[in-house]
Structure formats: structure tokens, C-alpha cells
């Protein structure tokens, strides 16, 4: 596995379109390094590069499982572990988005004049 | 110089179809198949440009396609599309470099006046810069032709495979007809040939 490909797989960790993004969130939540993540998924660390570069699975149930199975079969990953990691990654990603929106709403609310504080 | 796709036509068409159909593994397969050959292609045509810029341009081109597969028409070649896209990314990457970095890259061969060279980014539009890069392609093809003249047929085959991004010693050993020798000997012979090619490329560039 080339260093350039490895670097590319790390680069897409910030892009929700890639499985790398979900796996990064999952690994961070478990304070896992790459070696442990590969062990968890039951694949060699070299395969992890390619798994990361896969498209993120679709969210809905049947599509999600079809996508996860496709990735697991293609790259020799334990399907149930990958499903668990990807699902957790999706939840964490949604939480990030939601908390980002909540923070924005909070800031907007703080900028609003207090009740009765405005001119009438 | 030929620029064959790293995949045969059927495999490339299949990958393209699956990429468009959002097969989740197609993105990984495309990156794996094309990243290194694309970097090698840029290295071949633009040897004077900093390697980090070439890698970035190749990676940018691949990521753009992975994020938006529809950007490449279904009847077009992925490889041709990526080469063209990477070339433009290279122009853009060169644009974004500092004037200091510009001095290090390939404009030296076409523009000797330092003050003018410093202003290339501002003065030239993208097509003009691309034309400059194409001039360099011709120069580099000349250099490669000169190097080939000093190599045996088998060594030329090795050079071709290197330009395509091949790195495996056993492949080069097979091309050189020493595939049956001990691995250590294969590594030694292949390394010696790579060093020889490298020296000749550098000499030819210096002479050009």
C-alpha cells in the first residue's frame, strides 16, 4: 500500500461522503489507533486504507446493510463489526451536525435583544 | 510516449459504471488503481515540478471525481479524464505556490527573466500556463528519447513500466529475464538499473 494512498485515505476522514469519516469518529470515541481499529474490524492494517476510501454507506436499513456487506466482502472485514462502527460513526456525525446547529442557534439567540430591552 | 490506462478497457468501463451507480467499493478501487499511475504520469510529463505538488494535483483530481462521478461522461475514459483533470489541478497548484516556489519549478526552461517569472501567476491566464506546461512535455519527451537510446530493449521496458507507476521488483526482474535468480540478486540488479536510469535522466535534463 503506497504512502500516497494512505495519505489520501486520511485526507477523506473529514469528508462525510467516505467511510473514513465514520471510522474516524468511531475510533476516536473508543480512543483507538489504526492498529486497534484494524484488529477490531478483523482485517490487516493495509486493508484499512481501502476500507476508508469506500463510499459511506447509505443511512436507511436495507441499503445500509447492503453497502456494509459489499465493503466487508470486498476487503475481508468482519461485517458485524464494520456495521457497528459505521452506525456509531453515523450517530456521532449527526450529533456533531446537530450540536453545530444548536451552537449556531444559541449564538443567534444571544445576539437577539432581550425581551423589553428594545425600543417600542 | 504511450499513456495506457492502468486498467484494461473492460475493467475501466466496469469500474466507471459502478462508480456512477454509487457502488461503495468503487471509490476505493478507483483510488487504488489510478493514484500512483497518475502521479507517475505527471512525474513523466512535468519532472521539474516539485513532487509534493504533483502528488497533490493527482490526489485532488481523484477526489474530485470520487465526490462527483457524474463529472466524467459515461462514454469517456476515466484515465483520460483524470489525466486532464490532474493537469489542470497541477496548473492551479502551481498558481497557488509562492513566488519562491515558482523559481524551483519548471518555468525556468521557458522564462529566464526573474522579474517576469515572478509575475507569471498574475500575468498569464490558465490556458497560457497550460501551453507552457505542454512545451515542457515536448522537452521531457525529448529527454526520455535520449535516455532510451542509451538503454537496451529490456531496460526500455523497465523504464516504461516505471513511468506507468510500477514499483515491484519481481515485475522488473521478469522484464530483465532474471526472474529465476535469488530475490537478493534481483533486487540488486533492479536497483542498479533504476540508479542508471536516474543518472541518465538527470544528465539528459542538464544537457537539454
What does this structure look like?
The complex is a heterodimer of chains A (120) and B (208). Chain A is mainly α and 120 residues long. Helices cover 70% and strands 0% of the residues of chain A. Chain A contains six helices and no strands. In chain A, helix 2 (19-29) crosses helix 6 (79-111) and helix 5 (61-75) crosses helix 6. Chain B has 208 residues and is mostly helical. In chain B, helix 2 (26-45) runs antiparallel to helix 3 and helix 8 crosses helix 11. The radius of gyration of chain B is 19 Å and the shape is globular. In chain B, 33% of the residues are buried. The chains are: A mainly alpha (120), B mainly alpha (208).
Task: Give the gist of this structure.
The complex is a heterodimer of chains A (120) and B (208). Chain A is 70% helix and 0% strand.
The separation of the N and C termini of chain A measures: 68 Å
What is the H/E order of chain B?
A: HHHHHHHHHHH
Quaternary structure classification: heterodimer
Judging from the principal axes of the Cα atoms, what is the shape of chain A?
globular
- The percentage of residues in β strands of chain B lies in under 5%
Instruction: Give the low-confidence spans of chain B.
Output: 98-124
Output mean pLDDT of chain A. 87
Number of helices, where a helix is a run of at least 4 consecutive DSSP H or I residues of chain A: 6
Rounded to the nearest angstrom, the radius of gyration of chain A is 19 Å
Low-confidence stretches of chain A: 116-120
User: Helix share of residues of chain A?
Assistant: over 70%
Most residues in contact, chain pair and counts: A-B, 25 and 20 residues
Radius of gyration of chain B: 19 Å
Mean pLDDT across all residues of chain B, rounded? Answer: 78
Biggest β-sheet of chain B, characterized?
none
Overall structural class of chain A, as computed from helix and strand content, comes to mainly alpha
Count the strands of chain B? Answer: 0
